[in-house]
Task: structure prediction
Amino acid sequence: MDRTILQQAQALYTDAPWRDRYHVAVRRALCPFERLAAFVPSTGLIVDLGCGHGLFANALALEAPRRCIVGVELSTRKLLAARATQSAALTPAPSPDCGRGETVAGQVHFVQGDLLANPVVGPCRAMLLIDVLYLFTPHQQEQILCMCSERLEPGGVLVLKTMDTLPRWKSALDRLEEWMAVRLFHITLSGRSPLAFRPLAEWAALCQAMGFETRVVRLDQGYYHPHAAVVGLKR
Result:
């Protein structure tokens, strides 16, 4: 993904409240979205689970008009900010069929939902989990991955973006920031359970057990966070 695409996506939030504009700007600066986009198919139904303000979902639609993007978000405030971008977006207005079994290319649609009760029917070409699974218990993480496997079409792609536990200094800094965002400032919604981080190799093994052919990709070069991804192909 070209950096100008992310700039175009960020520009959709010009009229958003300052808090949302700030969050989107920081998120864009700190997450390697350009590198992640390389793993997302250029056509079909793409579901971004825990899409936040919808920055990556909007960027993916701008990059490849043949994608139908559905962003699922629990936070009402973030969802409102994401939906507000649709009136300013360059893509056509969303159809109710987008995400309900029929792929309508070049559209972005944001729906409210919990990852444990994903409202998107599918079958999906790709499902994205970008820095969200640590908010769930280990058992819930496995439930979500199982659901992704069930709703992906054969040959579909799972993109699991996470923070590795190595190197330790990056992991320690990331955990401190996430604890502050979730517990102190309540920027991110989460239950009362402890934040559940796993080593990258453990994520890969879990995805393999769920029926994916996996590869592990480090994404943290040039970043102080231990960015990494597990990319799974449904067998």
Notes: The two ends are 27 Å apart (CA to CA). The beta strands are 44-49, 67-73, 107-112, 124-130, 152-163, 212-218, 227-234. Residues 168-184 form the longest helix (17 residues).
